[in-house]
Amino acid sequence: MNNPLINPGIGTFLWMLISFAILAFILMKWGWPAILKALHSREEAITASLNEAAKAREEMKHLVAHNEELLRQAKIERDEMLRNARLTSEQIVEDARTKASEEANRIIDTARENINYEKLKAIHELKNQIANLSIEIAEKLIRAELSDKPKADALIQKELELMELK
């Protein structure tokens, strides 16, 4: 088994060692600082991202708590507004009922007054008509009585005597 890759010769081994040393020197001089710098910047970026994520998580917790508080306050305000609206509507309905009842009572009172007025007016008119009829009847009776002269004189004499007694 004289394979040069498995059992290298001393010259091959020496050239491989020199090549490795040159490669290690180049990597140490320019490669490793760039790689370490990249790794360090990446580490800082990851740390900063983790810190930002932690801050964002804390902020989100505060925002969630604040939002829940706002939601709770909004629900309380909504309930208060609904209660006020309900009370206002009940008050408006009650006021409307009261006004309607007062208006109905006023209309009824006005109607009663009108009825009493019309009743008194009708009674007065009826009395006037009765008085006119009575006067007409009396006038006709008196004319009939006075058409006869002796009866008229007797009636006048009788009335004069009644007047003197009073």
Describe the structure.
Helices cover 93% and strands 0% of the residues. By secondary structure, it is mainly alpha-helical. The chain has one domain. The longest helix has 137 residues.
Distance between the termini: 185 Å
| 3D shape | rod-shaped
Largest β sheet strand count, sense and barrel closure: none
By helix and strand content, what is the structural category?
Answer: mainly alpha
Helical fraction equals over 70%
CA radius of gyration is 65 Å
Estimated share of beta-strand residues? under 5%
- The SSE string, one letter per element, is HH
DSSP strand count: 0
Domain count = 1
- Mean pLDDT, nearest integer? 88
Number of helices: 2
Low-confidence stretches: none
Helices and strands, with pairings:
Elements: H1 10-146, H2 149-165
What's the quick description here?
This protein has helices at 10-146, 149-165. The protein is mainly α. It is rod-shaped, with a radius of gyration of 65 Å.
Keywords:
mainly alpha; 2 helices; 166 residues; rod-shaped; 0% strand; single chain; 93% helix
